[in-house]
Amino acid sequence: MTKIVKLDESNFMEVVEEASEVLSKGGLVVFPTETVYGLGADAYNTEAVKRIFHVKGRPFDNPLIVHISDLEMFYRISRDVPDKVLDIVRRLWPGPFTVVVYRGDIPPEVSAGLDTVAVRMPAHPFALKMIECLGHPVAAPSANKSGRPSPTKAEHAIEDLKGEVELIIDAGETLYGVESTVIDFTSDPPILLRPGPLTPEELKSSLGIEIHIPDFVKKAVKVDRPRSPGMKYRHYAPEARLILVESKDYKDLKDLAMAVVDIAKKYLNSYKVGVLASDETMHLYRDLGIPILSYGSRSDLYTIAKNLFRRLREMDSLGVDIIITEGFRDEGLGLTIMNRLRKAASEIIHI
Ligand code: TXA
Ligand code: MG
Fold this sequence. Notes:
- The chain has 351 residues and is an alpha/beta fold.
- Helices cover 33% and strands 19% of the residues.
- The strands form two sheets. Strands 1, 2, 3, 4, 5, 6, 7, 8, 9, 10 and 11 form an eleven-stranded mixed beta sheet that branches. A five-stranded parallel beta sheet has the order 14-13-15-12-16, with helices on both faces.
């Protein structure tokens, strides 16, 4: 049985206590963070941690992120962390920023047996209080079935996990809508494993840290020996077949839209087709007479990122067989958006 609780100002502490109680008994809780909803277990309870993998259908070699509420927890679960990295996390936490460091006192199951651990302190008042109340770090991947788009609303987690977890906390839509930036600090220079809300450009300008951006972050390439085990698998994918259309520089959006229209026309007669567009191009698709949804304006990449996973799920709800999506420029938050779209896509067309 899954209990679903709506969070509001009046029941905040009551729900915090209920959630930490469930976790302390080895249960699983879907909880809000500022990025996406997480599927949490007490990180020191190996049976509960193993259950996360079963419930998600997650491959056992794909490690989880450990969520903490204070730096004492970080000192305990990590080891040999350079002062430079401590300075960085002191400045960036709580926030959508995950560091991979050497693993200290925490069961190897959370890290799929690796000698490293991924850690972050989430910037959501509920998540922080729940972890604090439990007194243990919380291991939590995104609260979706493996391979599906990450949940940015409780409804998405309910869709995927109802009946398989003890408690789902509904706190409305998440702030960023894409998962945290993951950086491996066991390498020098540090390596960007997953782009997120905090961009390499921002890290450079605010903290002066140089981060290596490997090719796999930008490309939909198959990597033989992935650095982050999560990279091996197709991710974020809607049920429908997703065709991503990329332009060289996105200077001429009419050209981009024309290519999308051509592809749509190719499939229209035999399949139910939908288009994911931007505010700037929406009007160019009206004549197609098919479902068209916008991610938002190209001038506001935060909104595009926030709506990304939700729109993919909405297209599935409309019952389309094929989704054609516009791409975005690879800069700043655009890199994060394109990383997700390329992993979700069945096919990428360059114009
Ligand atoms: O925003 C987020 O990070 C969300 C919320 C719930 O906090 N969590 C999340 O977790 O996205 P998950 O499990 O869906 O993604 C974790 C990513 C995976 O790509 C995984 O391979 C990588 O982090 N990862 C975890 N531990 C690692 C490690 N020790 N070394 C390298 N990569 C690691
Ligand atoms: Mg995930």
